[in-house]
Amino acid sequence: MSPDPRPVLLLTRPPADSQRFAALLPEWQAVISPILRIVAVEHDAALLREAPGLVFTSAHAVASAGPGRGRLAICVGGHTGSVARQAGFAVREGNGFAESLLPLIKATPVPLVHPHGRHLAKILPVPGVVVYDQQAQPLTAEAQGLLAGANPMVVPLFSPRSARLVAAAARAARSPMTIVAISEAARAAWDGPFAEQAVAATPDIEAMAAAIRRLPLAEQ
């Protein structure tokens, strides 16, 4: 039997994030195989509940801070900002890059605390608290089968760490692979095989979906 020529999306974010992204590209077949597992860790919950202001670089950290009660939340981008608003925070948003938070932090008169994951891409100039771990896990048997096959694949990369982990898992891949990165840092972290590569115009899932739609593979 000849391989199906249609490209397949390999989505390696945690399940809810991957499902949210797949919904933006309903015309694509998607295989979800998280390379990371988000696991809560013990932390000083009272410190976060009582903090006058929070910095969120991931939506995964919002719940750790308790109810917003109108407190300030400086958020890295739109999705994290939306989750923080739903929790009752007064939100100021960056442009999706952690660097965009620096002027917002500098202009904020209240003390800030940054709840974040154990693996942090950028250290910000505010006190930080680790509230979850991003634990690596192997790809599913279905994903490994796709990598070993001949179908073309598109692999979205949402962080440098996940790019390194997926690249390591894909070193022996036979599938023609296109990588689409959310940032230059994520693209640079990939050291696995690829046939084509692209970088989203802005660091958000809408731009990632748009970049995938512009691929020559999308016309198949």
Automatic annotation (TrEMBL):
Residues 28-209 form the Tetrapyrrole biosynthesis uroporphyrinogen III synthase domain. SUPFAM superfamilies: HemD-like. The lineage of its organism: Bacteria, Pseudomonadati, Pseudomonadota, Alphaproteobacteria, Rhodobacterales. InterPro entries: 4pyrrol_syn_uPrphyn_synt_sf, 4pyrrol_synth_uPrphyn_synth. Gene3D superfamilies: 3.40.50.10090. It comes from Paracoccus aerius. It comes from the Bacteria. This is Uroporphyrinogen-III synthase.
